[in-house]
Specification:
Elements: E1 8-12, H1 17-28, E2 32-37, H2 42-48, E3 55-59, H3 65-79, E4 84-87, H4 102-130, E5 133-138, H5 151-170, E6 176-183, H6 189-194, H7 206-216, E7 228-231
Helix pairs in contact: 1-7, 3-4, 4-5
The structure holds NADP nicotinamide-adenine-dinucleotide phosphate (NAP).
């Protein structure tokens, strides 16, 4: 895989804390980037405006396979193909198992697993066409390490890791590497507000995780596929 400026990258969850940092990391390396947002927002356009026509926003609710397909078609058309999918869409809800509702379970599975599954399936023909693609998923530490009140979230992220392993094998001979990063608690404004007593200096910053994700898409990492890489910081 070539580095930097020849990359064409689509990032889901482009309006999110991590997704936006991932967009910036690739744009700063000279890549062309399509950020997928669930609904049109002026904020994303504004955040990306400094990068000129190398950055585009594409709308797609990834709970729908058809909307994902349209979003990836548009991203590929506007960038001139796709080499990399960074799947950073997701959501978090926790609560006691005894009272966790089916609607909450459905939200976790859709935001975390289905959105990644739909994005990867929709991006795949474009990655195959590029003859050398990368898929990066975002898992989470609770997929590996048990904690209370996280059954649905942990299961949805464990499904993302299972998909990482399966796809890494399935796509190996199409020269597509599939990896996942596993953040602990990320240093985001939302987490700072939710946990005012915590020490955020221990949490990995979105920019630090984005830099690791960018490295996983570099030439040096071409031999890496099927990895589930912890990015825990000191948390
Ligand atoms: N924050 C953490 O501490 C942490 C820890 C471990 C793992 N992670 C994972 O890291 C990723 C990014 O987290 P974050 O903190 O950046 O989250 P965030 O700020 O809440 O952003 C999540 C993004 O996903 C998008 N999204 C959710 N459902 C979608 C759908 N159906 N279709 C399209 N887009 C959808 C959201 O769009 P809207 O703005 O429209 O809702 C938003 O852009 C997630 O996968 C999360 O599970 C986060």
């Amino acid at each position: 895989m070539e580095d930097g400026k020849d990359l064409r990258v689509v990032v889901t969850g482009g309006t999110g804390a991590l997704g936006l940092a991932v967009c910036r990391a690739f744009l700063e390396a000279g890549a062309r980037v399509a950020a997928v947002e669930r609904r049109p927002s002026e904020r994303l356009a504004k955040e990306l405006s400094g990068f000129g026509d190398r950055a585009v926003a594409v709308v797609g609710d990834l709970s729908s396979a058809e909307a994902a397909r349209r979003a990836m078609e548009e991203a590929a058309a506007r960038l001139g193909g796709l080499r990399v999918l960074c799947s950073a869409a997701g959501a978090f809800e926790m609560g006691p198992f005894a009272t966790f509702t089916d609607e909450q379970l459905e939200r976790m599975m859709t935001a975390n697993f289905r959105s990644a599954y739909h994005a990867a399936q929709a991006a795949l023909p474009h990655l195959v066409a590029s003859r050398h693609g990368k898929i990066l998923f975002v898992g989470a530490r609770p997929a590996l390490t048990a904690g209370p009140q996280m059954v649905a979230y942990a299961a949805s992220k464990a499904a993302v890791l299972s998909m990482t392993r399966s796809l890494a094998v399935e796509l190996l001979h199409q020269n597509i590497q599939v990896n996942a990063v596993l953040p602990s608690t990320i240093d985001t404004p939302a987490n700072r507000a939710a946990m005012p007593e915590a020490d955020p200096s221990r949490w990995p910053k979105p920019e630090q995780i984005a830099a690791v994700m960018r490295w996983l898409c570099s030439k040096e990492a071409d031999i890496v596929s099927g990895a589930e890489l912890p990015v825990y910081g000191r948390a």
